[in-house]
Amino acid sequence: MTDTDAAGIAQRLDQVRARIADAAARSGRPAEAVRLVLVTKTVEPERVRAAIRAGQAELGENKVQEGRRKAEALAGEPVRWSMIGHLQSNKVKDALRFADELQSLDRASLAEALDRRLQTLGRGLDVLVQVNSSGEASKYGLPPEDVAGFLRQLTAHTALRPRGFMTLARFTPDREEVRRCFRVLRAIRDRAMEEAPQGTALADLSMGMSGDYELAIEEGATIVRVGQAVFGPRPLPDSHYWPEAAA
Hints:
- By secondary structure, the chain is an alpha/beta fold.
- It has a single domain (3-230), classed as Alanine racemase (TIM Barrel), CATH 3.20.20.
- Helices cover 44% and strands 15% of the residues.
- It contains eleven helices and eight strands.
- The protein has helices spanning 3-26, 45-53, 64-73, 92-95, 108-121, 147-154, 175-195, 213-218, 228-231, 238-241, 243-246, and strands at residues 35-39, 58-61, 80-83, 101-105, 125-130, 160-166, 204-206, 223-226.
- It has an eight-stranded parallel sheet with strand order 7-6-5-4-3-2-1-8.
- The longest helix has 24 residues, at 3-26.
- The radius of gyration is 17 Å and the shape is globular.
- The two termini are 33 Å apart.
- It comes from Azospirillum oleiclasticum.
- Belongs to the pyridoxal phosphate-binding protein YggS/PROSC family.
- Pyridoxal 5'-phosphate (PLP)-binding protein, which is involved in PLP homeostasis.
- This is Pyridoxal phosphate homeostasis protein.
- Keywords: Pyridoxal phosphate.
């Protein structure tokens, strides 16, 4: 990696932070009310290290094996890792080797597998419940109508610490449809804070990525997941990196 590349990463990271601050101000909140999780998907460890040197401490990964390898390569750096992609129950052990947070809890079997492993390790885990706010069959996440019952089930898993919700908006140029997805999640969060057993602990809303994070913040996001706006576009489609996804 060149010094120019490292400088570009730092510059784009500053630009994203500035845009987060502006969007937060438009929603009547300070910049500190929004947590930036920098998505390192397909990004080489040395380029991630450049972002760390520029002050980024929150990192997110979509794939367990990639996250584990990257965390090992960056061992000793002052960072916190979030698992933000779909997690298979048989990958729980590997995910917990590096993840301090899971943003994609979407089913009872995964909650059970996580809790069982965490009890063995003697530790807890912050989790966000993933909700399918767009209603697309291609997306993971609970249907909105199933969230209340799922939150009640989670009380049986004492090693899990539910902190809020995550969603992916519909991928569309229709900004009002994107906003609608974010508003669906915000309404779920607001109701859960009043009615769910976890109450006000469910304050977090993880929504918004490189193409829509400013809209998400305007609609109440407390966490945004941004990668390509800092590291640049991936040179190849996801199917190149993960052939099983294309299959």
